[in-house]
Write a structure and sequence with these properties.
Helices cover 37% and strands 28% of the residues. With 779 residues, it is an alpha+beta fold. The two termini are 58 Å apart. The N terminus is likely disordered.
Length: 779
């Protein structure tokens, strides 16, 4: 046995767990393909572009000898596809033949209108990637008996085509046997190969802001170098590693004839391992165990000392990690470090700004684009003119985003969504708007000057949402098919809601003096096509397919904007309809809308009477009014009463005592289990327990502070309860309890932490507190 080169040592170790002695039929072999790859466009910097990881399984059903040729039947299991292939290996230098059998794309689950076509179209591109690997699955081999030093040349001629998706790899490969070894009783040959290749591909990509597809083509040349362990009897490698480096050009073509080109390069590293059925099962178990080790709960928890220091705001640790990141050249390691900084250090505005500045100073323009796209539709406040100025650089010239290999859609669509969700024309304050006055004006000025049609459409939306009366007609006059960015603006101008809900009926504002049914349809009507789909999936009585009384901020914005555009007194009409209502169900419809618009305030007595009326429509409106009032404008409760309510909560947590009597209807009551595992250790936030109660419960439960809970080992199980300040309004009270839950985990597993909260809305009735509503959340 010859000593093999160090490059093959790792592969030999891996081969120890692969197909040891495949049976003569050669059935049941499975190939795992792990790939790390990236395309880099002209302006992208290598250190800021991590590799994308992918794993694919190829199932070799059989191998057959046919004279000098060998035939392999392969099953491809990729998502929902059940494709097959026949690969014929010809004597070198003739290229291998790949014959694909594309199965009809079957979708098992019921879908909604349009989903089937979208999924099938996306799957075509994904399947193209898997099929491209087939040509590399099997090595060419000469007719001569294997021996160290044997060299041969073969032709690469791989090509796949599926409608607009095309891919080809052509070139010449030189292979040489450089050593041999015995693994599992079989003689394996170490083969090194190198190929000079030309790569071409073409595919379609959706451009949402133009409601079209663009064609992307790439042409590149370069080398593919690999090492594999060849089983000379099977003519199949049992392990392979290869690297690809290509240099060329990527072209983006729009249907209107525009095209943008950028230099492009491709880098890929692959590892192939062949398993028999037992090895495959063991590998799947290994992958599953590794996922469990790395996966924790829904609440992210520091898992080591460094993360805890960063989470605690340790600027020394933060700055040290930043210095380390600046010196890194490995893009994957650098990405991991910066993700850690963003996760644990960006807890303050100052730290977030520092990390953004560090990234930009290092030359990462792509991160600037991502930040701008996120800030365009953000809850942190309106976009300012400095950000808009930076956005314009990208929106004026789509080729700039293309040169960074970024989506051209993000900025346009995020700005339009922000403008139509929080228009300046309906602003109640300076924070809940899409953009500052100066920023909106800067955007609006592009209506006359911009060359890019999508930027002009964004500018028109800025004009309309700032000054509805003169500009809404301009928006409504334009064709949505040619201006897809204006669709949500058109819905807003006509008072339609559900601009982002695909299933919504999107009915216009009902005409004056319309009855409750018309307004219910406007609030939550469902497109008939979707209603049929809901009924098919969930049954004829599907709640999702049934219009109901739902009124949120989007509805309020639609009415206010419609009023600003037309001058129609919609609020006055609703008030008259509410006063004239002859039934509680009609009063519920108009009362809910007026309450959402801030135009209806039920008195304490009205809410109390309605809650005990037993009439569901009156109870519902009273409950909504009470919750809104207690959440927004209530006051802290007197200490004595507060302590009594908290004491009741503690008794329920520690002793499983009963809570207050539930006055809700049976249909509103639900069993709420807010923990994921059996409570083996309950801890109480002592700072949230009123002072008179601490002595009472100190001997019954472990009372610790928030800082003590945070300092505990996150892998030691326990449930930490916090009582919140009781809020009150008249005869009503709001009692809230939240919990932080940790599961017992071994040291090699990521911490698993969850959180939940329950809010009880109470009413004092005949000398006792009763539950009139309950709200809750859970991670």
């Amino acid at each position: 046995m010859r000593i093999v080169t160090s490059a093959a040592v790792v592969m030999l170790a891996a081969a120890g767990s692969v197909a040891q002695t495949p049976p003569p039929s050669n059935r049941g072999l499975v190939v795992e393909v792990n790939e790390r790859q990236r395309w880099l466009h002209g302006r992208q910097l290598s250190r800021f572009t991590p590799f994308a990881d992918d794993r694919t399984w190829l199932f070799i059903r059989s191998m057959e000898e046919d004279s000098a040729r060998r035939r392999y039947r392969v099953n491809l299991r990729f998502r929902e596809s059940r494709d097959t292939a026949i690969i014929v290996i010809n004597p070198s230098p003739r290229p291998s033949e790949v014959r694909l059998g594309l199965a009809p794309f079957a979708i098992r689950d019921a879908l909604f209108p349009g989903d089937s076509a979208d999924i099938i179209e996306r799957s075509r591109g994904e399947r193209r990637i898997v099929h491209a690997r087939l040509a590399d699955l099997l090595p060419a081999f000469p007719q001569a008996a294997p021996r160290v030093g044997l060299t041969w040349t073969d032709t690469l001629a791989s090509a796949t085509s599926d409608g607009p998706y095309r891919r080809s790899l052509r070139g010449t490969r030189v292979s040489r046997i450089t050593g041999d070894s015995i693994v599992g009783g079989r003689r394996l040959w170490v083969v090194r190969d190198s190929a000079s290749v030309r790569y071409e591909d073409a595919y379609l990509e959706e451009e949402r802001t133009l409601d079209t597809t663009v064609q992307i083509t790439r042409v590149a040349t370069g080398t593919v170098r690999g090492t594999h362990l060849l089983d000379g009897d099977l003519r199949l490698f049992l392990a392979r590693a290869d690297t690809t480096h290509l240099q060329g050009e990527a072209t983006l073509r729009y249907p209107d004839g525009r095209s943008f080109r950028t230099p492009a390069r491709y880098e890929r590293m692959r590892r192939w391992i062949v398993y028999d059925s037992a090895g495959h099962a063991a590998r799947l178990a290994e992958i599953s165990a590794d996922n469990c080790r790395r996966r924790g709960g829904m609440v992210f928890t520091p898992s080591n000392a460094l993360e805890r220091r960063l989470s605690d705001g340790d600027t020394v640790a933060r700055d040290s990690l930043i210095r380390e990141w600046r010196q890194m050249s490995d893009p994957d390691k650098a990405d991991t470090v910066f993700r850690m900084l963003r996760m644990w250090s960006a807890r303050s505005e100052a730290s977030r700004a520092l990390l953004e500045r560090v990234r930009l100073e290092a030359g990462d323009t792509a991160s600037l684009y991502g930040r701008l796209a996120n800030s365009a539709f953000s809850t942190q406040g309106p976009t300012d003119s400095a950000d808009v100025q930076a956005m314009l650089r990208f929106m004026e010239d789509p080729s700039l985003a293309w040169s960074y290999n970024l989506s051209r859609d993000w900025l346009y669509e995020n700005l339009v969504q922000a403008l139509t969700t929080s228009p300046r024309a309906t602003a109640r304050d300076s924070m809940h708007v899409a953009c500052t006055i100066a920023a909106c004006r800067l955007l609006a000025s592009q209506w006359r000057t911009a060359r890019e049609p999508r930027l002009r459409d964004v500018a028109l939306v800025a004009l309309m949402t700032t000054d509805p009366r003169p500009w809404s007609d301009t928006v409504l006059a334009l064709d949505s098919a040619r201006h897809p960015l204006l669709r949500s603006a058109k819905l807003l101008a006509t008072g339609r809601v559900g601009a982002t809900a695909r299933a919504s009926l999107k009915a216009p504002i009902p005409p004056p003096n319309s009855g409750a049914p018309a307004w219910i349809e406007w609030m939550s009507g469902v497109d008939p096509r979707w209603a049929a789909a809901f009924a098919k999936i969930q049954g004829p009585a599907s709640r999702a397919a049934t219009p109901r009384v739902v009124f949120d901020g989007q509805h309020a914005t639609a009415i206010r904007f419609y009023v600003a555009r037309t001058g129609r007194d919609v609020v006055g009409e609703l008030q008259r309809s509410y006063r004239a209502a002859t039934s509680d169900s009609v009063r519920l419809v108009f009362g809910t809308m007026l309450r959402g618009l801030g135009e209806l305030q039920l008195t304490e007595a009205e809410i109390a009477n309605d809650l005990v009326s037993g009439i569901e429509a009156r109870v519902e409106l009273a409950r909504e009014s009470l919750v809104s009032r207690l959440d927004r404008t209530s006051a802290p409760m007197d200490d004595t009463k507060d302590a009594a309510l908290v004491d009741r909560l503690l008794a329920a947590v520690i002793d499983s005592a009963s809570l207050w009597r539930d006055e809700r209807s049976p249909t509103r009551r639900r069993n709420r289990a807010w923990v994921h595992a059996r409570i083996v250790r309950a801890l109480i936030d002592k700072d949230s327990v009123p002072m008179p109660l601490r002595a009472k419960w100190a001997g019954r439960a472990e009372l610790i502070s928030q800082s003590e809970w945070k300092a505990r080992d996150p892998r030691v199980g326990g449930v930490f309860y916090t009582m919140h300040t009781v809020r009150t309004w008249g005869r009503f009270a709001r009692v809230e309890i939240t919990l932080s839950e940790r599961l017992d985990r071994s040291a090699d597993l990521a911490p698993a932490q969850f959180a939940a909260g329950t809010t009880y809305y109470l009413m004092e009735l005949n000398g006792e507190w009763v539950i009139v509503d309950v709200g809750g959340w859970i991670t």
